[in-house]
Amino acid sequence: MQYNKNNIRNFSIISHIDAGKSTLADRFLELTSAVSSRKMRPQFLDMMDLEREKGITIKMQPVRMIYKEFILNLVDTPGHVDFSYEVSRSLAAVEGAILLVDASQGIQAQTLANLELAQKQNLFIIPVINKIDLAQANVEQTVNEIAKLLKVKQEEIIKISAKNGTNVEQVLKAVIDKVPLPDIKKEKPFRALIFDSIYDQYKGVIAYVRVIDGQVKKTDKIKLLAIKTYADIKELGFFTPELVSQEKLCAGEIGYIATGIKEPGKIKVGDTIAMSDVKPLPGYEEPKPMVYASLYPENPDDFDLLKDALSKLKLNDPSLVFEQETKESLGRGFKCGFLGTLHAEIISERIRREFGFNLIISSPSVVYKVDDKLIYSATDWPESGQIKKSEEPWVSLEVVTPNRYMGKIIEVLKNLRANYIRTDYLSSRIYNHSLANQGSRGAKRQEVLNSERIILVYEIPLREIIVNLYDRIKSVSQGYASMNYKFLDFREAELVKMDVLIAGKKESAFSKIVPKEKAFAEGKALVKKLKETLPAQQFSVALQAVIGANIIARETIRARRKDVTGYLYGGDYSRKRKLLEKQKKGKKKLKEKGSVRIPAKVFLEVFKT
Predict the structure, then answer these.
(1) Which range marks the domain in which residue 214 is found?
(2) How much is the average pLDDT of 27-53?
(3) Average pLDDT in the 351-372 region?
(4) Chain centroid offset of residue 452 CA
């Protein structure tokens, strides 16, 4: 299609996890014939097998669609709180956003968080309610909530079923009619913002860009302003969503530029690509890791492969932070910073699948402060006698829930050192009145109360958030509650380092920092989990949780049994006794000299716990 500044619309879809965002994107692809019916599959823009298996979007994915005479550039975004940095980057590349709300769940925590990100970018918001076909859908209440939240008329809210395709075309028309045109300055010198990137072994680093000013041709030479490096363009083009080569990209368009640069560390998300020395674009605020874990290759010879894998993953996930470290028992590895435990789990799984080797993963930990020095892992924790003051990070937690689950959620939070701040009301009660003849008594008013949705606001240590709080809240609320959190500050706490001994040998990957009052409970839970996941050995294995020289919890894995007397028959019992005594001595020697090999899956299982 011929370039026309008036026919371009750039937009994203923002929502809470499981609101049907990927399904709506599928309908867009079908309506615009961007993907042939032969190639079409559910969750098409979720390119990774991992995304489809977990049923969540992990990576943003741009796609260019043609609808009538309009070019529609959609940047699909994740919905989980751990990937909010993906959302913020995609929103900086567009002018409008579809706010998608599940009619059966109503407005949820990440809906509010993503809406706040969009409003900070001054994007035009198109409110859409999905899943109106479900029996449990509460469309009227959800419409009322959104109308009050956005201060719009109820008739402006589009009601759809992405699964069935109901009213989906109305959403595309609303994008065309309401999303502002990109602010195009074609006559200015070329400038483009890098909002994502990937690595290709033939084309080098491929930068995903939003062209802000001017235009760039395939034959041009470009400059990366942050690192002051020039490069020849190997290829440029659009996403359909596959990469399709073009001759040029113009202001207002979203596309890609293959730079030919083979060093991943040279390309930074938020950098400006230009052809001369011009003023750089504002870029993005650097993400702050919330959770730290150490990654070590199971085979020490794979260290360089791990370094290369992390460098390439950081290209399209700039929220990943890593630096090299060495531990006596594990060798060389990396201390990595993540935005949450799901983020850490996804990165470790991607390394295993995409690069083909196993990892040893330390227990996840938040960053602490000891005497004003930041401590990123249990390995760096000083001896207790050297500590004057220890501090841990606190966050502001918001839980959005129907009123009927409030008691259960408060009960969960009561045991987590959380401080109650306030209760906000998302929507006022809606009363439906109906009149019916009731015999001689006349008319009687029937009152139907819809469940009121509330926001519980707490202040809580970040450490309590990363230990499966999300799953527990979902469980007690039957899936209806949701949560979001923001960092506040560091606060003083009495913390201790807990180590784990396996067959008398300290395994530093399982060491963790815990509140002193919770040390016994956490130690007991950890050794119990290890007992369940570690395979049995030829000898009994003691599992101990220790603080300093004190053992606070213990479990024992019984030795693998083999009947060495099975082939004997007849004769005196002393023959069997001799064999059993010989077996007992052999097991004792194994226990003294042998070591326990810990499979990679054990580290991952303990990590998930």
Answers:
(1) 191-274
(2) 79
(3) 86
(4) 29
